[in-house]
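Retry 2 of 3 after timeout on previous attempt. Resubmitting structure tokens to design endpoint.
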């Protein structure tokens, strides 16, 4: 019997930003400002920096964070515990990526998240979309791709909060999850990257996190 139902596929390898690159410096800047504890300030575009590049670096960082957070609860998120990908009783997500799966399909949460994380990783690894070399321009559709990635990553947070928060608390990871989500929300709010309707499953939590920082 294989212990645990952990799919090795769901937990993606960390996407590394090449050391010595300008994006690496930006990531270091982001980490340093995060350390100051002021998240609203930490998400702002650093002076003189390119908006696309700032969004790219942070998108990679959020992918890594969510990947890690979800990785800790995969044994609780199974075909039987989560037969549909949902964020509470009112929100259900069906998967389509527009290329391999054109018509949205209903699938279990672990399957959906596996599709989602694999899709995001493919976008991040695509040098034409997320160029890592200095001087290589971002494509015209970069912003719309980044928005789609962030919208989908939000769904993983929403699923964890709605269906697995008790497990997160048992693992004593709620502070880590809350900080990561707050950082994510402040970032997407700063640059208006996710439609408010998409955020509805966690609206109360978002308002609570925001009110503490006013």
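Retry 2 succeeded. Sequence:
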């Amino acid at each position: 019997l294989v212990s645990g139902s952990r799919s090795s596929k769901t937990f993606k390898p960390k996407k590394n930003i090449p050391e010595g690159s300008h994006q690496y410096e930006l990531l270091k800047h982001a980490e340093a400002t995060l350390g100051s504890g002021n998240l609203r300030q930490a998400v702002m575009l650093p002076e003189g920096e390119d908006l696309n590049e700032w969004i790219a670096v942070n998108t990679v960082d959020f992918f890594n964070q969510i990947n890690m957070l979800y990785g800790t609860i995969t044994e609780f998120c199974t075909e039987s515990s989560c037969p549909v990908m949902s964020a509470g009783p009112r929100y259900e997500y069906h998967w389509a990526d527009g290329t391999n799966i054109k018509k949205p399909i209903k699938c279990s949460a672990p399957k959906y998240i596996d599709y989602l994380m694999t899709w995001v990783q493919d976008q991040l690894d695509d040098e034409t979309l997320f160029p890592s070399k200095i001087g290589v321009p971002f494509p015209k559709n970069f912003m719309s791709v980044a928005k789609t990635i962030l919208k989908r990553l939000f769904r993983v947070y929403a699923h964890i909060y709605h269906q697995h928060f008790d497990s997160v608390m048992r693992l004593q990871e709620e502070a880590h999850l809350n900080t990561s989500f707050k950082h994510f929300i402040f970032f997407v709010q700063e640059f208006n990257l996710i439609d408010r309707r998409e955020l509805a499953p966690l609206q109360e939590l978002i308002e609570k996190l925001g009110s503490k920082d006013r």
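Attempt log closed. The chain has a mean pLDDT of 88.
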